[in-house]
Design goal:
The chain is about 25% helix and about 15% strand. The protein is an alpha/beta fold. Bound molecules: ligand MGD (2 copies) and molybdenum atom.
Length: about 850
């Protein structure tokens, strides 16, 4: 191994095969900007990727006060040196000339530059006025899964105990609220049971609605290396698109979108019918088996086949794979989480593992995946609609304990009802009860459903909007105050990936202009607001990242996400560390639930659970009666059809999602030349049959319309299932001529012009994956293919052997996606260059 690879053309790079139970060989990926000689790199600063939830560990190369490249960290448990395309190229956006460098305030309808004092005084002035006139419920905070732990914790203290509002949530609501909820429903508490190391040991890997090849490319490299080594795992993929995962799978099920629960109930039916149940495990560690068995008694493969439009025999094959696995690893992501029965479906995958006793052993685990790099911290710190440290808002002891940590009166922490979820916060803003919304690190004017509604909510005069970002995003353009933030590489902090691995990310360079770290902005606000504890001392007692981390450790002590054994010093130099990490587990904890379930006990659990159909919270007494010994809970759910089904006017199903080259609303990846060129504009995927039936061809300009709105893009004809359209949601408007998006009624290009304001009743996660839509031709293409990558799920369908449907207007062969010389990355089995140091941390 070793050499230069075009990592746009080959996103996963070269193979390093290994056998089951072996160690994944290291491969160090390095990318330095053109013209940078490795010998001239002055410093390598330790960090990890901030563009997905893997936590790929990397060192940032610095020269002349600028970031000039990155290289993977071979010592890290997560990536063993590898980096994905976004990791390799995404950092270039930091130095983009259009970074925000000064605060902006709205004057006479326009945003104008100002100084920090003026901007912060506007915010504190409005905060005080609203507190006085309307009370804390008039103020809401909408944050992200992309800041650092220290920042979320500070924000949570400010919002919950400083302002005293219940309106604090993250865009994690759109992302991993179902992961958290499914873990709470089954295990009583958030906390990822499995580990990425399970990929090394599994004999069967099942991916449910998870395009891991594109969204966690480094862990896909690991799967590929296992597939090419001795004793490879068998692969099951449940995804309606022809993803790279689907193409490598032993069994690929491509169900109608929105039918996961029917499919999973059939799989559980088969597991029970063929008696592949681990009865000892079920008896020792679970409650609810009889109810589950009753519920799936009639949900045969033949029954599910009709609902899911998948052959019954295929479903039986999938059940056979799952039923005969000795070490089963399952992963779950947005194909499950962003639908109307999100939690109900995700919980059935937990059930599968509980029935089969597939937990807490190497290779046997479930990964209710995260998406954003720091979403786990949003959840732990209570910036997501939960209380910090996985404390239970319905448990007065937990609230009292949190009040003790913060030295406030318990009544100062709102807990009269569940913390407000993001979709409800926007509703309150629409209705006028929320009058100030502070948005940090997220771009709702592109990422929330039904954008015409979101734009009109944010544009209201009566709503005071603060946006804290790196760029003048579509959302920032609607703000009253815009605060320029420093980001990854420009500030220090920690974050935790999807398998509980905590990494330290150091400051490598100065932020541009007057941009400030999010932590400093929140601390400044707390100081100006003069928040006090119950003895009159300052509420927020820390002043920098490390002291914030130490404060968080005190809050996490004794809770499942215990960080007390981690220090900045311990995170420097080596690998990331998996929580819980404390005196009893000083090196961290690879897997949870190695000896049964530990955190479901009524006095400990983060949640008493909810009804899987209505979402109503279970009362504490009910929980004690149902689960007195704190076991894992097998919860059954009946299939319910999607809320919006195709009909005459909207004959297609529409789903939305991602491509390997872009991150969300592209504020970073759209400013990285290699990534942008690989997928420069929106496209629409449809099957060859559907395209032919409508006389459409590759490259035609088409419109996708739903009752909410419409978008236009070029058609890509793929092997996607018939009747389904796919649109990537990455494309907003900041790089279009007017920067702002359509006037209402005119078609745009953002997927969320079309999506519906609706959510899973349990996790409150919006439904980005199921809608009904119409597809029409706007304008014939000129033979130019759609701007969609060929290396991914959007690969063109092979041209039909018969003559093209009409006049030959579509291209016969779509040229392959390539990056060229500027995308060449060094792959090496040792450190490629003896640059100074192994990363010198913060
Ligand atoms: N390249 C890239 N990587 C990313 C991100 C990114 O923007 N770009 N974002 C990160 C974040 S925040 C997240 S949340 C993750 C998301 O990661 P993923 O969940 O892997 O990505 P998506 O493309 O949203 O959806 C995954 C798959 O769900 C399938 N799907 C749609 N409907 C259904 C259904 O009804 N049933 C089933 N079984 N499958 C269905 C789609 O075909 C799609 O391939 O990615 C993270 N990593
Ligand atoms: N149709 C459809 N919609 C979706 C999804 C889908 O699959 N389909 N997926 C949903 C999911 S899973 C997610 S996670 C969301 C993502 O949606 P968003 O969070 O809205 O998308 P991002 O583009 O990641 O926005 C992050 C913003 O934070 C800024 N930022 C980056 N780093 C920092 C920092 O250090 N400090 C500050 N203050 N700002 C920073 C970026 O410039 C950017 O504007 O989209 C959701 N929306
Ligand atoms: Mo996400």
């Amino acid at each position: 191994m070793g050499g230069w690879v075009d990592r746009i053309a080959e996103p996963w790079g070269g193979r390093t095969p290994y056998g089951r139970g072996g160690t994944w060989p290291a491969r160090v990926d390095t990318y330095l900007a053109e013209g940078i000689d490795p010998g001239t790199v002055e410093r390598w600063v330790q960090s990890a990727s901030i563009l997905h939830s893997d936590g790929d560990a990397m060192d940032i190369a610095v020269r002349d006060g600028r970031i000039v490249g990155v290289r993977g960290r071979a010592v890290d448990r997560v990536n063993h040196g590898r980096l994905g395309p976004k990791d390799l190229f995404g950092w270039q956006a930091n130095a983009s000339p259009d970074r925000l460098t000064r605060p902006l305030v709205r004057e006479g309808g326009r945003l104008v530059e100002t100084d920090w004092d003026t901007a912060m005084e506007r915010i504190t002035g409005r905060s005080r006025q609203l507190l006085r006139e309307r009370g804390p419920g008039a103020i809401g905070f909408y944050t992200t899964g992309q800041l650092f732990l220290e920042e979320y914790y500070t924000l949570a203290v400010i919002a919950r105990a400083g302002i005293g509002t219940n309106h604090l949530d993250g865009n994690t609501r759109l992302c991993t609220s179902t992961a958290a909820e499914a873990l709470k429903e089954s295990f009583g508490c958030d906390g990822q049971p499995g580990s990425y190391d399970d990929i090394d040991h599994a004999d069967t890997i099942a991916l449910f609605g998870h395009n891991i090849a594109e969204t966690q490319p480094v862990q896909w490299m690991r799967v590929l290396d296992r597939l090419e080594g001795a004793d490879p795992p068998r692969l099951l993929c449940v995804d309606p698109r022809p993803t790279r995962v689907a193409r490598r799978a032993d069994v690929h099920l491509a169900p109608r979108v929105g039918t996961n629960v029917a499919l999973l109930n059939a799989l559980l039916h088969e597991i029970i019918r063929t008696d592949r149940v681990d009865h000892d495990y079920v008896a020792a560690h679970t409650v609810g088996f009889d109810e589950l068995a009753r519920r799936v008694a009639d949900t045969t493969p033949a029954w599910a086949a009709r609902i899911c439009d998948v052959p019954a025999a295929r479903i039986a094959e999938a059940a056979e794979l799952l039923g005969t696995a000795r070490r089963l690893l399952s992963t779950v992501l947005q194909g499950v989480y962003q639908s109307h029965q999100a939690t109900a479906a995700a919980v059935q995958i937990n059930n599968l593992h509980l029935l089969r006793g597939m937990l807490g052993r190497p290779g046997a685990g479930v990964l209710q995946m995260n998406g954003q790099p720091t979403a786990q911290n949003t959840r732990e710190c209570g910036a997501n609609g939960d209380l910090p440290g996985f404390r239970n808002w319905q448990n007065d002891e937990h609230v009292a304990d949190l009040a003790r940590v913060w030295n406030v009166d318990p009544s100062a922490i709102p807990h009269h009802g569940p913390p407000t979820h993001a979709m409800q916060m926007f509703r309150y803003a629409e209705q006028g009860s929320i009058r100030m919304l502070w948005i940090s690190g997220t771009n709702p004017a592109v990422s929330l459903p039904e954008l015409s509604r979101i734009r009109s909510i944010l544009a209201q005069d009566r709503l005071f909007v603060v946006v804290q970002d790196l760029f003048l995003t579509e959302t920032a353009r609607l703000a009253d105050v815009v605060l320029p933030a420093a980001t990854w590489g420009e500030k220090t902090g920690t974050f935790t990936n999807a398998d509980r691995t905590v990494h330290l990310s150091g400051k490598a360079v100065e932020p541009p202009g007057e941009a400030r770290p999010d932590l400093d902005i929140f601390l400044d606000y707390a100081a100006r607001m003069d928040f006090r504890d119950k003895d009159g001392g300052p509420l927020v007692t820390w002043h920098d990242p490390e002291s914030a981390f130490e404060a968080w450790k005190r809050c996490s002590a004794g809770r499942p996400c215990d960080y007390t054994g981690i220090t900045y010093g311990k995170l420097r130099g080596g690998s990331g560390i998996q929580w819980p990490c404390h005196d009893g587990a000083p090196e961290g904890t690879p897997r949870l639930y190695t000896e049964g379930v530990s955190w479901a006990a009524p006095d400990v659990c983060e949640s008493y659970g909810k009804d899987l159909v209505t979402g109503a919270a279970t009362e504490p007494v009910e929980y004690r009666a149902l689960n007195p010994d704190g076991k894992a809970m097998l919860k059954a759910a009946a299939y319910v059809p999607p809320h919006e089904e195709p009909g005459e006017r909207y004959p297609f199903q529409l789903t939305t999602g991602r491509t390997v080259y872009h991150f969300h609303t592209r504020t970073k990846t759209g400013r990285a030349p290699q990534l942008n060129a690989a997928a420069p504009d929106v496209w629409v995927e449809a099957s060859a049959e559907d395209a032919a039936a409508r006389g459409l061809a590759e490259g035609d300009l088409v419109e996708v319309a739903t009752p909410r709105g419409a978008l236009r893009g070029r058609l890509r004809v793929t092997d996607i299932r018939r009747g389904l359209l796919f649109v990537p949601f990455h494309y907003g408007y900041w790089d279009t001529p007017d920067g702002q998006g359509p006037g209402d009624g005119t078609p745009g290009r953002a997927a969320n012009e079309t999506t519906i304001t609706d959510w899973d009743p349990v996790s409150k996660q919006p439904l980005f994956k199921t809608a009904a839509a119409a597809l029409t031709l706007v304008e014939r293409g000129d033979g130019t293919p759609a701007p969609a990558p060929t290396t991914t799920a959007s690969a063109p369908a092979p041209a039909p052997a018969s003559a093209p449907a009409r006049g030959g207007s579509g291209p016969r062969v779509v040229p392959g996606t390539e990056g060229g010389p500027s995308a060449r990355v060094a792959e090496s089995d040792a450190m490629p260059w003896n640059g100074p140091g192994g990363g010198d941390g913060a």
